[in-house]
Fold Penicillin-binding protein.
Amino acid sequence: MIGKSLDDEDLVAHGEEKFSRTSQIEAARGRILDRDGNVLASDMEAYRIALITDPSYSNHVSDPEAAAEKIAEVVDMDKDEIEKRIKEGIEEERFQIELGKEGRELSYNDKKTLEEAEIPGIVFIAETKRFYPNGNFASHLIGYAEKNQDTGEFEGSLGIEQAYDEKLKGQDGGLDYLKDLWGYIVPGTDSVAEAKNGSDIQLTIDSNIQMYLEDSLDTMEEHFEPEETFAVVADAKTGEILASGQRPSFNPRTREGFGESWLNMLYQHSFEPGSTFKVFGLAAAIDAGVYDPNAVYESGSYDVDGHTIYDWEPEGWGDITYNEGMQYSSNALMMILQEKVGEEKMLEYYKDFGFGQVTGSEFPNEQSGTLAWDAELQRKTTSFGQTSTVTPIQMIQGMTAILNGGKMKKPYIVESITDSESGEVIKENDETVVRQVISEEAADRTQDEINTFVGGSMERNPQYLLEDYEVAGKSGTAQVINPDGGGYLKGDYQFLTSFIGYAPEDDPEVIVYYGVKLASKNKSDTWDIGVMPGFNPLMERTLKYLTVGEEDGESPEPVKIEDYTGKMISDVPAAANDSIQTIILGDGEEVVDHYPKNDKLLPYETFFVKTDGQLKMPDLTGLSKREVIMFGDFAGMDVTVEGEGYVNGQSIDPGVVLEDGQELKVTLSSNDPED
């Protein structure tokens, strides 16, 4: 006792080791929010099920069959499998068993339901999980975080979760104390280090526009079954990314689809863009003073270093003006313009537009793309978007220069970082001018030329016309590199088809860049109508949601839909909402059924209502293909759809009384003025 040691063992240290305890205080991971503060990712308390199978313990599973039956009503697991595991635990004399993945991450409501079932032997273990309320929703952009099995800490993987992992995860705290023989804390011995919760990351993403984008991607996936497709919506004036998505994608909540694609295509996927790239060569030629829209050249082909490169129409269109050549998307014209500008000067323009270099985004492994400039043939094919590669974010960034008087805006996705405890804004991003790429006059003239590419004098790309807005932009059809060897893929419609567009054309508010690669279904449509099935509804719904062209400029809010069954149609708020289109079946006053229920509708979505009285055919003009299919399901009718775009014809006239078993044929139009 005097020496405080026995057989060379430090008795003080031995006592401290025996009675001292440390308890970790876990920091909450910061939230990821959209521009309006809606949660895109957050920590959430979840529960894990354990079942005590030791009969010597007072609270144990006494009836495996009854327990399994009640648990199977909540847990996504077969009753027989649950019962089998319980019985195995009993036979093997285990104290408790768990149900694996299916028995984890239960919600509070699931826990409450099982508690009310009063199942003997069931135990709930609280744990934290990362929650993504919207499922498949900007998944590669947001990323995901999961617990490291070795450290027990959440780690970000992909997207914002990975890029801002250090900011989001915070710092764990701890409680150090001594306990006595009976397990109580010895007074005055406790020391607390408070946990520091992670910071909140607010994005520029608008959840409503993102939902429009995800919906459009689903439409494109169904129509084309492509290898890849992507879409991005940006604020034309500031460079803010309002929405971004891709297919294949995954659901971070369920992990469904996870692993099919690791790349965040917006920043990490580089590809040969095709003719959409021509707008930058056009801008350079105008800025250099060598583009005269009324000058005439011979279209069809151009000889380069012993090779003849053809327009997409090998015979060409005869002697046409430069502007007509741009409307026809002539490769020969682009090579002529590059010669006039000078190859080295043109390379400088491309670099000034941001190609061949990263944009300096938040994301790791951002691709720079390549400007293939070593050989004469590479330099010439770059002029029409082949050989050299770009990323979608570079295309958006370059387009902002053309639409903002030559001032190129840096695209950004993070609006602010906020201390979740104090509310102090740690970092705030804002509109940033990267550089003056071309003169203001050249930018305005370039925009004037691009404004003729959709429905201009040569009536090109009419499928991208919208009724309520003037859309401008450039289409592209690029050959795809053969991954198994040199050269490009051979065969019909082996393309990357894309369109980069903006609206309104005179005062652009929104840029949408849309691409689809290697369709396996309806292949010829990639040539005939391009990405119109996805681009048009996305652009139109975005503009309407942003109330572009309307005086008040205030975006309508999502509309909450309750269950109105049995109420009078005049008492249904959604039916009177100007931002919601209501389709009514029936000439009565009482609501018999409606879709959706106990949900919400985004602005300009459709609300289907069935009333009492005679069922009469409503006017479906303007509905999308997806909405027509929804109507058929709601009305119990077999519907056949022809065409793409929006309803412009129906086999049953509006007002006709419907009969059981009637079939409806609907035709869609791309808003082509020749249709």
In short: The first strand starts at residue 5 and ends at 6. The chain has 19 helices and 33 strands. The radius of gyration is 31 Å.
